[in-house]
Every structure is written in structure tokens, then in C-alpha cells.
């Protein structure tokens, strides 16, 4: 088997496949998406563990099993009758009966100074991942264009702090009822265009600034790898923020291409525990399909 991508989804998939006695090649395509964060949260028994420490532990625990970790990127993938061919960055070609994609997504941050520099430290996207650490602090939530997303995000973030300001970088496009509810919750709305983040303050086009302890944003996303397109995997559009994710059968992680499975961020499972669970689910389904296929073969 070949598992492409060694984040939480890929590592857990490789673990399940290895324990099922499947000889598995795990391709590591680089740093995990959450590498800039100080800690991973919401993961039972490992809450607060730095992302790269989680990766180290996971790799260490693969050692007893028939899993080979190869730190090279998969450049191309092709489907053939009964197997797949993957060409690596170093030019090596490898083959497998099944592929499990866990190549993830990239975050597309708004083009504003300071956001990328603060990403994972003072600029956050997920309140479940980072909300506890900034609870009761003075926060801003930047949702350009406002609308229903801005309203629902403000209602959600209000759970972690009473000191929240909504920034819409222009007209808020909120209904009267939504504005009334946010006013009742004590969430002011600033519609002035934002020009940047200093690490401790939001700056505006008119020269003013707003001191804040942290900034939340909702970046767009794009598939990190070209492999799904090369293989012809169908996608499903989840809107301008979640982006175009791979379409899979929920119970198995099977894509539209027979023999190709997917897990993790690239199918929308975007917390560590959810990504890992999706990797385990896809790996178990993949192994079961192979067992069924092998059982149907004529005895030699």
C-alpha cells in the first residue's frame, strides 16, 4: 500500500494498515499544516502537545509494523489495471494495489500585512483549537464581506470571550435582526477597511487602530497536491472558504476512482482528532476491500 501524506490522517492510516500486516509505504510530503501552532488540542491524552512532537511520537510508534517512511514527495500518480504507479520527486517509481491520499490543504490567508507572520501565534482560525488559550481576552474576528458567516462566527466566538469585535472590511451585509442580536451580545461591528495586523493591533485604512490580544480569521483553502486531479478524483465545492474538497464515501473514504481513498483535511476533516479518525476509517475500509478481493481469487 502507499499512503501519501504523513500528517495526522496519513500517520494513523499507516498505523492501521501496518497492524493489519499490510506492507505500507508512507510518503512524507513536508511539514504538517498545523506546524506553526504551539500546541495541538482536542486530542484525548495528548491535549497541548506540540504538533511536531505528535508527529515524532506517531512515527516512533510505527516502528514495530511493516511501514516504511520515505521523506520524498509524490510528483505523479497513474492508475493501471489492478495497480497504481507513483513517481517520487527523486525520480524513483513505486507501485501499489491501492492508494490512500492524505495530502491536505493549504490555507489562503487574506493579503494583509502581518497575518502570515502571526499565523498560529496571534492569528488563529479555529476557536476549538485556540479559543481556550485566549479566553476572556480582547479578540477581533475578521470576516471580509460579513454576511451570515460573520454573524454565526461572532455568535460562536462569543462563547470564549465577552470582549469580541467583528471586523467586516467593508459593508457588513447583516440583517437588522442579526445586528440586534450582536448588539445584545455586546459585539461591536467595525466596517472600515482593514490594512493589517501588527501582532497586537488591527490597523485601518483611515489611520486608526484597534488594540487586540489576538485576531481570528477564516482563510480560504486549496488542495495541497495535484495528485487527485491527475488521478481524476471527483471534487465537491464547499464554498469560497472551505474550497473544493475531495468527494468521498463517508463510511469508507473511497474516492470516485476505484482503489483510491482519501482522508484528513483534503476531505474536510480538519481537526487533528478528526483527521486521524478519517485516516483510520479509510485504512480499515481499504484493508477490508483487499481481503475480499484476495478471498475471491482462485486457489493456486
From TrEMBL:
Keywords: Flavoprotein, Oxidoreductase. Residues 2-277 form the FAD/NAD(P)-binding domain. It holds the Pfam family Pyr_redox_2. It comes from the Bacteria. PANTHER family: THIOREDOXIN REDUCTASE 1-RELATED-RELATED (PTHR48105). This is Pyridine nucleotide-disulfide oxidoreductase. It comes from Deinococcus sedimenti.
Amino acid at each position: 500500500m502507499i499512503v501519501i501524506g504523513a500528517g495526522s490522517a496519513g500517520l494513523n492510516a499507516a498505523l492501521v494498515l501496518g497492524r493489519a500486516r499490510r506492507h505500507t509505504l508512507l510518503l512524507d510530503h513536508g511539514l504538517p499544516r498545523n506546524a506553526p501552532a504551539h500546541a495541538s488540542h482536542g486530542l484525548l491524552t495528548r491535549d497541548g502537545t506540540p504538533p511536531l512532537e505528535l508527529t515524532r511520537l506517531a512515527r516512533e510508534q510505527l516502528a514495530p509494523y511493516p511501514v516504511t517512511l520515505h521523506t520524498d514527495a509524490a510528483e505523479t500518480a497513474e492508475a493501471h489495471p489492478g495497480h497504481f504507479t507513483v513517481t517520487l520527486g527523486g525520480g524513483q517509481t513505486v507501485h501499489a494495489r491501492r492508494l490512500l491520499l492524505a495530502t491536505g490543504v493549504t490555507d489562503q490567508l487574506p493579503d494583509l500585512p502581518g497575518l502570515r507572520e502571526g499565523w498560529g501565534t496571534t492569528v488563529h482560525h479555529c476557536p476549538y483549537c485556540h479559543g481556550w488559550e485566549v479566553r476572556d481576552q480582547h479578540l477581533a474576528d475578521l470576516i471580509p464581506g460579513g454576511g451570515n458567516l460573520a454573524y454565526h462566527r461572532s455568535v460562536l466566538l462569543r462563547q470564549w470571550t465577552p470582549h469580541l469585535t467583528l471586523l467586516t472590511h467593508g459593508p457588513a451585509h447583516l440583517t437588522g435582526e442579526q445586528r440586534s442580536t450582536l448588539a445584545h451580545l455586546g459585539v461591536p461591528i467595525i466596517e472600515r477597511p482593514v490594512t493589517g495586523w501588527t501582532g497586537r493591533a488591527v490597523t485601518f485604512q483611515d489611520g486608526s487602530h484597534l488594540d487586540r490580544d489576538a485576531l481570528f480569521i477564516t482563510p480560504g483553502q486549496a488542495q495541497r497536491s495535484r495528485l487527485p486531479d491527475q488521478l481524476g478524483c471527483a471534487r465537491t465545492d464547499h464554498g469560497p472558504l472551505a474550497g473544493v474538497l475531495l468527494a468521498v464515501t463517508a463510511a469508507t473514504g473511497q474516492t470516485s476512482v476505484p482503489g483510491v481513498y482519501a482522508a484528513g483535511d483534503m476531505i474536510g476533516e480538519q481537526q487533528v482528532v478528526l483527521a486521524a479518525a478519517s485516516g483510520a476509517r479509510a485504512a480499515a475500509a481499504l484493508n477490508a476491500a483487499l481481503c475480499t478481493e484476495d478471498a475471491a481469487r482462485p486457489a493456486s
